[in-house]
Amino acid sequence: MPIDLFACAPPPVVIEIPAPEPGAAGEVLQFLTAPLQPLREQFIAITGAGLETAEPEGFAPARHRIPANGDGIELSYISRGNPAGRRIVFIHGSPGVAEEWGAFLADVPPGQYRLAADRPGFGETLPQEPVPSLAAQARSLAPLLGDGPGAIVVGYSFGGPVALRLAADYPDKVAGILLIGSAADPAAEEIHPLQEAAALEMFAQLLPVELHNSNTELLALRAELETLAGDLDEITAPVTIVQGLQDTLVPPQSAEYLGEMLQGPAGPRQILIEGGDHFLPWTHPETLKLALRCVLRDADQS
Predict the structure, then answer these.
(1) Exposed, middle or buried, 133 (CB in 10 Å: 0-12/13-18/19+)?
(2) What is the sign of the dihedral through the CA atoms of 129, 135, 136 and 141?
(3) What span, in angstroms and rounded, lies between the C-alpha atoms of 302 and 299?
(4) What is residue 210's three-state secondary structure?
(5) What are phi and psi of 279, to 5 degrees?
(6) Which domains does the chain have, with CATH numbers?
(7) Does residue 29 surpass a pLDDT of 50?
(8) How buried is 245 (Cβ within 10 angstroms: 0-12 exposed, 13-18 middle, 19+ buried)?
(9) Using an 8 Å Cβ cutoff, are 253 and 185 in contact?
(10) Do 57 and 123 touch, CB atoms closer than 8 A?
């Protein structure tokens, strides 16, 4: 289906974007490499290999700090745009840092203020300790929502349930939600024995801080998603989900789960990308920008 499908059909709707035709040689290559897809995605998620992007020319976002809140978290974030405009808050995955959203902060349309935080446990946010609680993550990010027109929250991977927790806990401050490869379904969360081993003190102290913190919050994610499930009906903002159908880190069943759990005014609009993997912010940035445009339109019309 052509990309002009983003005439923004109102939710609930399921939109499928077909993969480009690979050709005969491409089909053979896909067949041969398909068994390696889970290993490939896990390797990229841990190392970030292949996700490096050059900063856009002239990209120099302002860096800010929010004093420590009641949980002792001192949030660090970057921003660009008009502080008086509608806020769009970008939430990275696990691990990750704010600068990963550079392509979305480089060219901010008039009337918008775009912000991306280092989630608790990552980057320049302090202290550099794991924060597995989605509620505590949301509390630390809540000041970014501001007091103006309802903010848009964009959550990628682990940032997706953080965005949902924000929308459930602060429904009057969130006007729209964009989820990208978002974890959501507790049943989809599987713990590998190596993760449990890495959590043991003798091994944990050998890991880089960001990988230890990531492992800690991922080990707790299933229980956190079970708690979140009971509060999804508190979400009043329209939701758009973008999901790669070849994602092995957050399988498409999470999008299906949200489609069943989010009813009424919460949507959702589902955009399913055939051939898309877990790394959509790097592989499909233009599609995500169009999806964000739809979310903004939803917010303006609600």
Answers:
(1) middle
(2) positive
(3) 5
(4) helix
(5) -105, 45
(6) 3-19+41-47+56-189+218-301 (3.40.50.1820)
(7) no
(8) middle
(9) yes
(10) no
What would the two tokens of residue 111 be?
């009337």
User: Which tokens in the block code for residue 280?
Assistant: 């959509």
Q: What is the pLDDT of residues 228-270, one digit of tens each?
A: 999 999 999 999 999 999 999 999 999 999 999 997 655 699 9
Peptide bond into 12 cis (omega under 30): yes
Token pair for 161: 């349930």
Pairing, β 62-66 against β 86-91: unpaired
Neighbour count for residue 222 (Cβ, 10 Å): 16
More confident residue, 21 or 143: 143
Which two three-digit tokens encode residue 116? Answer: 């991306």
Listed in order, strand segments (DSSP E) in the chain are: 13-17, 62-66, 75-81, 86-91, 112-118, 151-156, 174-180, 239-244, 269-273
